Amino acid sequence: MTYRSIKGTRDILPSESWKWQRVEERIRKVMERFNYKEIRTPLFEQTSLFSRSIGELTDLVSKEMYTFEDRSGESITLRPEMTASVVRAYIQHNLGKQLPLVKLYYLGPAFRQERPQAGRLRQFHQFGAEAIGSANPDLDAEMISLSLAIYEELGVKEPLLKINSVGCQNCRPAYMKVLIKALEKIRHELSPESQHRLGVNPLRILDSKLEQDQRATSGVPLMRDHLCPDCAAHYKSVKERLSALGYKFEEDGRLVRGLDYYTKTAFEVISRQLGAQDALAGGGRYDLLVKELGGEATPGIGFAAGMERLMMVLGKNSPSDQEEGTTIFIATVDRKSQDWAMKHALELRRQGVSVELDYLGRSLKAQMREADRQRARYVLIIGENELEARRATLKDMKSGAQETTTFEEIFKRVVSSSKA
Ligand code: HAM
Question: 197 FRET partner, CA 20 to 30 A, in 8, 18, 64, 402?
Fold first, then answer.
């Protein structure tokens, strides 16, 4: 029997991992420019952390979580997202006591048992940010701006920003009554799935991708027209701030998001270069979540974005970026030269140089081919004569130039070129 990775999971091989590293580095840089600090939370948590925050009746909690009992009988869930964990950590470590506004970012895997397809995996990777401690609409604008700044930094073409307001505990209950009444009237026109949702999670009917549902619900009332004065003013301010920052956005009254913790602002960043799974990022405000999870009432806002979807988009329009090769390949001919090479490779590596040697007992010719394959900047050939003279020929693979000089000179050259 041979093993294969589990459906919906994938290996990120070296041919790709270097691109991930570069993208991750740039994401971190942008996060830090906006003064967000990294938080790393565990991959698993108590199941109720997620069901309480994301909502028992959401698809995510009711159908998609990887939940199991550990050996002590406790119900554990692999994190399907990071917001709940970040808020848990915020409360647990009293982060709000140290700083009035806590700005955190993260990168890492998340798990959802969805039907795998292009851009949808069961283990996927998210990066995201959370700012906890302010209800100011300026912060909504900053959070949205942060998500877009990352795509801008990476050269993603024309990300489309969609925004909406999903109201709060004051206006949403009344709106839900109005919505359910309107949906009941057109129940028979809805898809079977949406008819089921009517009794469970009626808001999600609004963002159904089925044409039948879209047609049927085209006239139903939307939350944005039923906001309380506070939510309406907040929504207006967010739009004004975004415009002042020069962002274009589309107001989408049907943008409801799949998680229950949102209040007021909800947003998504869409790419037309993606297929059915076109959301690069999603987020919003969650002013009730900290209290819901046992902390003092504290407003917050955040977003998360899919790495795989970002990499798909970048793959479509990335410049001819290349992985860096090793700096130097030291080719050897016998035991003595190999001993020398191993010793000096370690010395060079300690000084920050990337070095490769032969471990397969290959001929000089085959070692040269390998150096080429590794895209080594320099090749050094060491044999008996070189060891005796303490001089060797350094070949610059980029320019083709060859120079015979002392070992000291060679090391100096290689160290300085790997620092450049
Ligand atoms: P979400 O919309 O569920 O929000 O996920 C955010 C992003 O993660 C999506 O836009 C998508 O790019 C990516 N994603 C989600 N599921 C998958 C999957 N199965 N395969 C590949 N990529 C996926 C959240 O997770 C919230 N925690 C966002 C947030 C942060 N709200 C406030 N703070």
Answer: 8
